Amino acid sequence: MQINQYCVYIITNNSNNVYYTGVTSDLKNRVLEHKGKIKTGFTAKYQCGKLVYFETFQWVDDAIAREKQIKAGSRKKKTDLIIGQNPDWNDLSYGWYD
């Protein structure tokens, strides 16, 4: 039996001044799509490709609920989430694509 894993993530630009929150079942591939600007839209327009935060869930409904909770929160709450896991604002996907 396969265990599913769903991720809620936040990516930003190099200046850390634009946040995008999303949910995916394939974080590595989804971040690569953002980095490569595969799809036009918000993240391509604002140069978002730096993964600064993520959480994993077994159930998609839980991941979607968490994504909605994060999106509904203030910018300060998002910043606090990021700093709590990644105080140096490192790209958490660094080295994934070597």
Automatic annotation (TrEMBL):
PROSITE patterns linked: GIY_YIG (PS50164)
Domain GIY-YIG: 4-80
Protein name: GIY-YIG nuclease family protein
UniProt xrefs under Pfam families: GIY-YIG
Protein family: Belongs to the UPF0213 family.
Superkingdom: Bacteria
Organism the protein comes from: Mucilaginibacter glaciei
Record-linked Gene3D superfamilies: GIY-YIG endonuclease
Alphabetical list of PANTHER family matching this protein: BSL5627 PROTEIN, UPF0213 PROTEIN YHBQ
